[in-house]
């Protein structure tokens, strides 16, 4: 829904030509402008607010939606890594930067790349500072972890994958934790 839809709803109410019989939204719902006849004081809404709220709550998938839903650029995380991340964010291998050509074998890396991809798909549509926010809040933070010498690729090189070794863990005794869900 666009601001234009809100303006149309507000102007229709101001003209006394709201949806239906021409009365206000409160009158259409069976109540009068004085609070609906239930003893309450008149609503503290300015004219058009109810219609504007209703316009915002409309299902964008309904026929006649003003704007098409943006489609993702990449269909999955692998496409994002292969066609966006690797060619654009080039770093020298070695030293503080690590990489694994089989990055998809590292669950932590996959999870972080998915978070980067999803945030990128959303923030690319934000006018003005959307991509700057993505760099600052998402990429810059994740890049140091993903490619860092203590990150998920710490034991790999670009030529050799080394399976990550999970930390050892012992199961907690029965009843140690209460179920929360």
Automatic annotation (TrEMBL):
Q: Which InterPro entries match?
A: DUF4913 (IPR032584)
Acidic residues bias (residue ranges): 56-66
Bias class Basic and acidic residues marks the residues at 1-11, 26-37
| Domain of life assignment | Bacteria
> What are the start and end residues of every segment in region (Disordered)?
1-70, 162-181
What is this protein's name?
Answer: DUF4913 domain-containing protein
What organism is recorded for this protein? Answer: Streptomonospora litoralis
- Top-down, what is the taxonomic lineage of the species of origin? Bacteria, Bacillati, Actinomycetota, Actinomycetes, Streptosporangiales
